[in-house]
Specification:
With 368 residues, the chain is an alpha/beta fold. It contains 15 helices and 13 strands. The protein has a 7-stranded parallel β-sheet, with helices on both faces. The protein has a 6-stranded parallel β-sheet with strand order 10-9-8-11-12-13, with helices on both faces.
Length: 368
């Protein structure tokens, strides 16, 4: 029998960022089981994208009321629904209501700061109502179990998966020339530059650059990404380094150019203190790039210590400087360490999670 899944998400097809990518990977894995999936996004448009067979995406509805009404109408027309999937706890109360109305299983996905910081009662209840909760890392799972009333077996870790495009290869001289990054070494960070995500550690790297450039005058810190915090970060880079050439803001880099960007760099450095997981660490390592992440959050899940990289205290500037200098001398990373995060493993885990979820009646039906 075909499984029908109604998915409420922030964004998926047509969206940028790690969570949109995660949702696309998840829906592709679910579709591969034969499931039919209707995606209801708050942001993004799927026009121009080729969706997996069995996956449809509705037009985005940004406002809370507009999204709720659209979800109720779509749920009614999409019946029967076996699973209501919720990609963000912000939509958890709506997802729980729909699951109850439809007599469906309720699957909630958690990523990081949305469950670490937002501890309102309505959020806690939306989480506790779920039949199954998946967390992107062990760090997120631990934070979750510390404050919600959930049996540990109801919370499973489902980490990011890394696309097969991310493999080692030669650095592109054309890209190096176009970006005008100089002789290097090149430190790289990739991610959204959002005022709400200042935990990524860019300013710690800025502070370390004068000392690093005293040893390595050609060293450059390249930052790929856009967002509402870019202007402030550019000003902070000038203040902390005193040299406009030390930091290069590359802006948005298309997905198809990311593998070449990783191959061009010498070290990936993003000492984030609250990363839910960090798909960019996996992408960099898959291309053979050593990585430095920050202690806290779920970064440790994405960085196999020793074979791929290391974790530093995000408040320890001297420790970061030492780690950068040391790891620049270690050459490329062994990408085999991230093989467990490749898509075949992810798809098999998703298949098992879906079978486990459907193997027992929905909790809300049991309470009725």
């Amino acid at each position: 029998m075909m499984v029908r899944i109604l998915a409420l998400v922030g964004d998926a097809y047509g969206g940028r960022g790690g969570i949109a990518c995660y949702n696309r990977d998840l829906f592709a894995a679910l579709a591969a089981t034969g499931a039919e999936i209707l995606v209801l996004p708050r942001l993004g448009a799927a026009s121009g994208e080729v969706l997996p067979a069995g996956v449809r995406q509705q037009p985005a509805r940004f406002g809370r009321l507009a999204f709720s009404l659209a979800a109720l109408w779509a749920a009614w027309r999409f019946r029967p629904v076996d699973v209501v999937f919720c990609g963000h706890v912000y939509m958890g109360p709506l997802a729980a209501l729909l699951a109850r109305l439809l007599g469906a299983h309720y699957w909630l996905q958690t990523h990081g700061t949305e469950v670490w910081r937002d501890r309102r009662t309505v959020v806690r209840r939306a989480i506790e109502a779920a039949d199954q909760v998946t967390a992107v890392s062990r760090g997120t799972r631990k934070h979750l179990l510390d404050w919600v009333d959930l049996a540990p077996e109801r919370v499973r870790v489902l980490p990011n998966t890394v696309d097969e495009r991310f493999v080692p290869g030669p650095a592109s001289p054309v890209l190096r020339e176009r970006l005008k990054l100089g002789p290097g070494p090149i430190l790289l960070a990739v991610g959204r530059l959002s005022a709400g995500e200042r935990y990524k550690g860019h300013e710690l790297v800025f502070a370390a650059l004068p000392g690093l450039r005293a040893r390595l005058p050609g060293l450059v810190y390249a930052i790929a990404g856009e967002g509402d915090d870019r202007a402030r970060l550019e000003a902070r880079a000038r203040e902390q380094t005193g040299d406009a050439s030390a930091v290069r803001f590359l802006g948005y880099v298309p997905d198809e150019d990311l593998p070449d960007l990783y191959r061009l760099a010498d070290l990936f450095v993003m000492p984030s203190s609250e990363e839910g997981f960090g798909i960019v660490y996996l992408e960099a390592a898959a291309c053979g790039l050593r990585v430095i992440g920050g202690a806290g959050g779920g970064s440790a899940d994405a960085i196999p210590i020793g074979s791929v990289g290391t974790i530093v205290d995000p408040t320890d500037q001297a420790g970061l400087t030492e780690a950068v200098a040391r790891m620049l001398g270690q050459g490329r990373a062994d990408p085999s360490a991230i093989e467990p995060y490749r898509r075949p493993h992810f798809a098999e885990t998703v298949r098992l999670l879906l079978a486990r979820l459907l193997g027992r009646p929905p909790r809300m039906r049991e309470r009725a």
